[in-house]
Write a structure and sequence with these properties.
Structural class: alpha/beta
Protein name: SDR family NAD(P)-dependent oxidoreductase
Largest sheet: 7 strands, parallel
Strand content: 15-25%
InterPro entries: NAD(P)-bd_dom_sf, Sc_DH/Rdtase_CS, SDR_fam
EC number: 1.-.-.-
CATH topology: Rossmann fold
Bound molecules: NADP nicotinamide-adenine-dinucleotide phosphate
Keywords: NADP, Oxidoreductase
Family: Belongs to the short-chain dehydrogenases/reductases (SDR) family.
Length: 270
C-alpha cells in the first residue's frame, strides 16, 4: 500500500491497483495475463492463479509489471483463503478479474468418471462463483469481470453434457451479475468462444468432428476480442461469424432440434 501526502498535509491512501487472472498457466488465461498489462497501463501488479508454478513463473519474465503468483488448486479451500487474506492485507483495488480456470470432458455422462464430472462443476461453477464473491468488495467503479463461458453454453449438448451445462451457468450468472453491478459501475462480460487452440483438448479429449477442428480459433485473437468487448461494456463476447451464427440459431430454433443437431455433431448417439 502506498501513501501519498496531499497538499493540505493529510495523508491519502493509494490502493494497490491489480488485475487477477485465474487459469493463467496456459491457453486463454495466459493470454489474458500477457495482454492485460499492455492494455491497462496504470496497474501496479498482476496476480495469477493456477496449479503449475513453473508456468506461472515464466509469466513473471514475460510481463512488464510485477506478477504475484498464487499457485494452488481451485478445487480446494486454501487458495481462496490465501487470496482473501492478501486482498485484505494489501487493500487491493481489483481493476479486472478474469475467471479463466476451467476444464471439460468430452463423452456421454454414463462413460465419464463421475469424479471428473463433478470436478467440472466444482471448478467451472463453484470456484468461479467463489472467486467472484471474494473479489466483489475490492472492485470499484470502472472495474471489470471477465468470465470464460463458452459457445457450448448456447444449448444442451449430448456428448458434452456436464461441460455445456456448467458453461450455461457461467453465462447466466454473468448476465445476472452484470445487472446487479451496473449501479456500482462494474462491468461483467461472459466470453463465449467456440473451439480454441489451447491445451483444453489434451484434457477434454479429441474434438468429435473434423469440422470443429477447422473452426478452431487462436487464443490471442479470442482474448483481444474479449478485452475489447469488455471495454465496450458488452455483457457477452462471441468470437467469429460461425459462433455468432450459432448463438442466433440457439435463440430461434426449438430445443429438441438443437439437441438433435448437437447429438449428431458430437456423435453422442453412438
Ligand atoms: N479451448 C476451448 O476450446 C475453449 C472454448 C470455450 C471456452 N473455454 C474455456 O476457457 C477457459 C480457459 O480454457 P483454455 O482453453 O485456455 O484451456 P487450458 O489451456 O487447458 O487452460 C485451463 C487453465 O485452467 C487451470 N486449471 C485447471 N484446473 C485447475 C484447478 N483445479 N485449479 C486451478 N487452476 C486450474 C489450468 O492451470 P493448471 O493446470 O496449471 O492448474 C489452466 O491454466 C476454460 O474455462 C474453458 O472451459 C475453452
Amino acid at each position: 500500500m502506498m501513501k501519498n501526502r496531499k497538499p493540505d498535509g493529510c495523508r491519502e491512501v493509494l490502493k494497490l491497483k491489480i488485475a487477477i487472472v485465474t487459469g493463467a498457466s496456459s491457453g486463454m488465461g495466459r493470454e489474458f495475463a500477457l495482454q492485460i498489462p499492455q492494455m491497462y497501463k496504470n496497474l501496479d501488479e498482476l496476480w495469477v492463479v493456477a496449479r503449475r508454478t513453473d508456468r506461472l513463473k515464466s509469466l513473471q519474465e514475460q510481463v512488464k509489471i510485477p506478477v504475484r503468483i498464487f499457485d494452488g488448486d481451485m478445487q480446494r479451500d486454501y487458495i481462496f483463503e490465501k487470496l482473501q487474506r492478501e486482498l485484505d492485507r494489501r487493500q487491493a483495488d481489483v481493476r479486472m478479474l478474469v475467471n479463466a480456470a476451467g476444464y471439460g470432458k468430452i463423452g456421454n455422462v454414463s462413460d465419464i468418471d463421475l469424479k471428473e464430472q463433478c470436478g467440472m462443476v466444482d471448478l467451472n461453477c463453484t470456484a468461479l462463483t467463489r472467486m467472484t464473491g471474494i473479489c466483489l468488495p475490492y472492485l470499484s467503479k470502472g472495474s471489470r469481470i471477465v468470465n470464460l463461458a463458452s459457445a457450448a453454453s448456447f444449448c444442451a449438448q449430448p456428448g458434452f453434457c456436464v461441460y455445456a451445462a456448467s458453461k450455461a451457468y457461467v453465462l447466466r450468472f454473468s448476465q445476472g451479475l452484470a445487472a446487479e453491478l451496473k449501479k456500482r459501475g462494474i462491468l461483467v462480460t461472459a466470453v463465449c468462444p467456440g473451439p480454441v487452440r489451447t491445451e483444453f483438448f489434451d484434457r477434454a479429449g479429441a474434438l468429435a468432428a473434423s469440422e470443429k477442428e477447422a473452426l478452431c480459433a487462436e487464443p490471442e485473437a479470442v482474448v483481444t476480442q474479449a478485452l475489447t468487448d469488455s471495454v465496450r461494456g458488452r455483457s457477452v463476447s462471441v468470437y467469429g461469424a460461425a459462433m455468432k451464427g450459432s448463438r442466433i440459431l440457439s435463440k430461434i430454433l426449438p430445443d429438441h432440434l438443437l439437441v438433435w443437431g448437437m447429438m449428431k455433431i458430437n456423435h453422442a448417439d453412438i
